[in-house]
Amino acid sequence: MEVHHHPNVEKKKLKEYFLEFLMIFLAVTLGFFAETIRESITEHERAKEFAASMVKDLDADTAQLNSYRTYFSSSANNVDTLLQLFSAADPENIPSGKLYWYGLFGGAHRYFVPNDATIQQMKSSGSLRYFKRTIATDVAKYDRFCRLIQSNEEMQQNIYTEVRKIRAMIFNFRYNDIANKIFQGNKSELDYRSVDSFMRTDPPLLSRDKTLFNQYVELVRSRFLRANISYADSALKQASLLLSELEKEYQIK
Questions:
Q1: pLDDT higher than 90, residue 185
Q2: What CA–CA distance (Å, rounded) separates 114 from 231?
Q3: Which pLDDT band holds residue 40 (cuts at 50, 70, 90)?
Q4: How far is it, in rounded angstroms, from Cα 63 to Cα 73?
Q5: I want to staple 118 with a disulfide (CB 3.0 to 4.6 A). Which of 42, 54, 82, 178 is the partner?
C-alpha cells in the first residue's frame, strides 16, 4: 500500500501574526489621521475664503448702516420738532415753510438691504461649522439683527403708506420736492442757510384743516422712527465685533 507524505508546512508564530496585525493597524490609523489632517487643512482654507468674503460684505453693510442711522436720526429729530410745533400752536399759526420742512420727514423712508450672500450660502450648505463656535454664534446674531431691521421696516410699511396719503392732501408736491432736494443735496453737512431760505418763502399749503393735520401728526408719531436707529446701532455693534473676530482669526487685512 502506497503511503502519501504531506509536505511540512511551517506554521507562523504568534509573534508574526501580531506584527502583521500591528502593521495593518498602523497603516489604517496613519491613513485615517492623514485624511483627518487633509480635511482639516481644506476646511481651514475654505473658512478663510468665506471669512474674507464675509469681511467685504460686512464692510459694505457697515457703510450702509451708518448712512441708514444718520438718515433716520436726522429724520427723527425733525419729526420731534414738528410735534413740538403742533403742541405749541394750531396749524394756521405756524409758518407754512416750517410745516413743509418739518412735515417732510414724516414720510422718511429707507430700506436696509444686507450684503448677506456669504452668510446665506454658509447657512444653506452647513459651512458655518468651518468657523469656531464663538464666531459662528456671532454670525447668527448679526444675521438676526439684519432680519429684525427688515421686519421692523415691513411692520411700518402700512403706516408709511398712510402717512404719504395724508401728506399728499396737505402739502403740494412741488414744494415738497424742493425741500427734499435741499435735504438730499447735502451729502456731508446740511446747508442750514438753504433751509432757512426755503422756510421764509412761505409756500402755499393745499389744506390747513386741523383734523387732517391731526391725522398726519398721529400717524407720524406712531412710526417710531427711533426704533430704526436702535436696530441699526445693534447691527453696527455686532458687525464691528464680527469683523474684529474674523480679521484676527484668519489674519485678514
A1: no
A2: 13
A3: low
A4: 15
A5: 54
C-alpha distance from residue 25 to each of 21, 33, 56 (Å): 6, 12, 47
Residue 9, pLDDT score: 47
CA distance 223 to 106: 8
The residue count for the chain: 253
Which of 60, 198, 190, 174 has its CA nearest to residue 118? 60
89 close to 194: Cβ distance less than 8 angstroms? no
Tens of pLDDT along 60-116? Answer: 999 999 999 999 999 999 999 999 999 999 989 999 999 999 999 999 999 999 999
The Cα-based distances of 7 to 1, 119, 242 in angstroms read: 19, 72, 76
**Alpha-carbon span 198 to 191, nearest angstrom:** 11
Question: Which residues have C-beta within 8 Å of that of residue 131, sequence separation ≥ 6?
Answer: 47, 50, 51, 139
